[in-house]
Amino acid sequence: MELRHLRYFIAVAEEASFRRAALKIHVSQPPLTRQIKQLEDIVGTDLFLRTPKGVELTEAGKSLFIDSKNIFTLIQQAAERANSAGAGKLGKLNVGIFGSAVFGTIPIVIQKFREDFPDVEIVLHNLNRVEQLKALRDGRIAIGFNRFFREEPDLAWEKIQSEKMSVALHSSSMLATKKSLKLSEIINYPIILYPKTARPSFIDRMISLFNEQKLSPNIAHEVDDVVTAVALVSSGLGISLVTESACNLKLPNVEYIPLSPSEGAVFDLNIIYRRNDISPILQAFISTVNAVKKSL
Length: 296
Known about the structure:
Layout: H1 3-15, H2 18-25, H3 29-43, E1 48-51, E2 54-57, H4 59-86, E3 91-97, H5 105-116, E4 120-126, H6 129-138, E5 143-146, E6 155-170, E7 191-193, H7 202-212, E8 219-222, H8 226-234, E9 239-243, E10 254-258, E11 266-274, H9 280-295
Protein name: LysR family transcriptional regulator
InterPro entries: LysR_HTH_N, LysR_subst-bd, WH-like_DNA-bd_sf, WH_DNA-bd_sf
GO molecular function, one term: DNA-binding transcription factor activity
């Protein structure tokens, strides 16, 4: 059984006439009659009753007519879904993020993409820098957001934004009334840094800022993420250095004081993806990232 058999069958059933069906689908009547006879031989029963006024469907014909219409509906839907997938409008996108990413630009990107491409499922994976690079190469994610990236021959990257730094401290601290702070003003306070895994990372960049000024920070704790760090600040266990976006994390008794611009503490947020990945969904997501980037 081929699709043309069903197409001809539907035409005859809808027109209740071989002559009218032949005119409708632009074929001569003898070939149409032969195709219907072939179809009846395939299914092993008559599909039409011949009457003086034309033809009527048998019970078998009525059953096949319903199924045939459903088949062509499914074919049309399959074509539309394939077209949507080819245009990046349908499918799944695996995205790598990291701890403090949930407080800044990334949620804006994801929200806009979901609005523009509601039929694409976004799956978020919380991964550090090293884990993201491996996941990209293994094909477990298509794109990652991260702050630290060194040139890799198989990976492409684009900067989304640069973020300044702030000091998270307890509201009872004498420093809480300052408009800005220098690193030299916080070296005697217990400092909470993060993340303690996936080196080199944010910790190493922070330590290098102190080292460039020949300062020795009082590192009290190294924790896994910014949320834990700020929670410890809220409990009065020290201070922490955070990016601008992390200042959106509101916990009791925590104040955020900008680090002086003269300290040169700026961190880039990047997207990372495979150079040879031409997936329409990925390209659509990158376009969304760039649209959001222009609005920042």
